[in-house]
From TrEMBL:
<dbReference type="GO" id="GO:0016787">
    <property type="term" value="F:hydrolase activity"/>
</dbReference>
<comment type="similarity">
    <text>Belongs to the carbon-nitrogen hydrolase superfamily. NIT1/NIT2 family.</text>
</comment>
<dbReference type="InterPro" id="IPR003010">
    <property type="entry name" value="C-N_Hydrolase"/>
</dbReference>
<keyword id="KW-0378">Hydrolase</keyword>
<dbReference type="InterPro" id="IPR036526">
    <property type="entry name" value="C-N_Hydrolase_sf"/>
</dbReference>
<feature type="domain" description="CN hydrolase">
    <location>
        <begin position="1"/>
        <end position="234"/>
    </location>
</feature>
<dbReference type="Pfam" id="PF00795">
    <property type="entry name" value="CN_hydrolase"/>
</dbReference>
<protein>
    <submittedName>
        <fullName>Carbon-nitrogen family hydrolase</fullName>
    </submittedName>
</protein>
<dbReference type="InterPro" id="IPR001110">
    <property type="entry name" value="UPF0012_CS"/>
</dbReference>
Length: 253
């Protein structure tokens, strides 16, 4: 869901509207929300006040919505208040029973020593998760610029890379290019879910995109907030790798 993160709308209203959209989905869906859609990926001043634990109110609300709809829900990311007192940009994935199946702390923090890079702790662990849609490999936004991370996810069995983001409009062509590059070089699906609208005066890029293992765009949003849907057949991962077995020619790693 490419959410228009309008921070002038009260948080409770934005949460309620997003949960309503999740509950509208049918039970054979994997629903993906963007990065930091509730606190805002770019409004650093909100992060401390909005930080939550992994069993906090946002996680509980997402779990309930996943269970009510019977969907797998990648809930985008929250500002996690870690046990060590640090904040992390953490993604949450819920099963259709509402159980929290995976969490991923963003490894590469954006900001070149300021912003997220200064305010959030770095994640340390790669995360994959077996689902009926294939094995998911979890990444967030800026991670997309680091191909070595995706190779490691590939080596752990990832077939569908899920990348929530708050990627600005001024670099949206990098976003589109990198999403396709990660799909082509790893022969995987990429589900890249961005924010729309404007946060802290920064126009967001939209253009959420679903890319298949051949690098073809299966579905792509424009700049506006909307629900983007696509049908994916994970068998295409094995087929692409068998028909064009480029990964067998790796010499490093
Ligand atoms: N917002 C991010 O984490 C990454 C980003 O904006 C980029 O250009 O990279």
């Amino acid at each position: 869901m490419q959410l228009d993160v309008d921070l002038s709308v009260p948080k409770a209203d934005r949460l309620a509207e997003t949960l309503r959209l999740v509950r509208e989905r049918a039970d054979d869906h994997l629903v993906v929300l963007p990065e930091l859609w509730l606190p805002g990926g770019w409004d650093y001043a909100r992060w401390d006040e909005d930080a939550e634990t992994l069993d906090g109110p946002t996680a509980q609300a997402l779990a309930e919505a996943a269970r009510d709809a019977g969907v797998w829900l990648h809930g985008g990311s929250i500002v996690e208040r870690g046990d060590d007192g640090a904040h992390y940009n953490t993604s949450l994935v819920f099963g259709p029973d509402g159980a929290l199946r995976a969490t991923y702390r963003k490894i590469h923090r954006f900001g070149f020593d300021s912003g997220e890079a200064a305010l959030m702790g770095p994640g340390a662990d790669l995360v994959t998760l077996a689902t009926p849609f294939g094995t998911l490999g979890l990444a967030t936004c800026y991670d997309l610029r680091f191909p070595e991370m995706f190779r490691l996810l590939l080596d752990r069995g990832a077939e569908v890379l899920v990348v929530p983001a708050a990627w600005p409009a001024r670099r949206v062509e990098h976003w589109r290019l990198l999403a396709r590059a990660r799909a082509v070089e790893n022969q995987v699906f990429v589900l890249a879910c961005n924010t729309a609208g404007s946060q802290a005066g920064l126009a967001q890029g939209g253009h959420s995109v679903v890319v298949d293992p051949w690098g073809e765009i299966v579905a792509e949003a424009g700049p506006e907030g909307r629900v983007l849907t696509a049908e994916i057949d994970t068998a295409l991962v094995a087929k692409t790798r068998a028909d064009f077995p480029v990964l067998k020619d790796r010499r490093v790693g």
